[in-house]
Amino acid sequence: MSQNHADCQEDAWLLMDKTPPKLSDIRKTARSYRLRNLSSERLVEFVESILVNELPKIPTVRAISEYLFTTPRTLGRRLSLAGTTYRQIVNDVRLRQAKKGLANSAMSISQVSVANGYRDASNFSKAFKLKTGQSPSQYRAILRSE
User: Is pTM, for the whole model, over 0.85?
Assistant: First the structure.
C-alpha cells in the first residue's frame, strides 16, 4: 500500500527530528524574503497599491510594516532609500485619487474628499490647493474646459 504525498512529507520531517513548519511561518518567511528582494521602486509601488485598495481608510505605517513582516523603522529606511517617506506616499496617493475623482463629474467635491480619507471638504480643499495651487473646483473647471 502506498502512502499519499502529505504522509510522506510528514514522515520526512519526523526522520529529521523536526516538526513541520506552520503555514503562517512559511508565509511570513516568503513575505520577508520578498521585501528584502524588492527594488526600492517596487516597494513604493507595493505600498501605493495597498493604500489605493484601503482608501478611504489610511493604514498606519505600523499596519503596512506588519503586513510585510518587518518593523516600521525598517520600512522607513527602505522608503528613505527610495527617496520618499510613508507620509509622502500617502499624500501622493490621495492627490492622484482625488484628481481621478474630480475628473469624474458624477462625484461632488464632498464625495471626493470622503473617498480619499478626508474628514470634510474644507480640509480636502485646503490640502488640494496647497499641493496643486488650485482649488478642487478650479481644477475641475479646467478639466471641463479641455
Answer: no
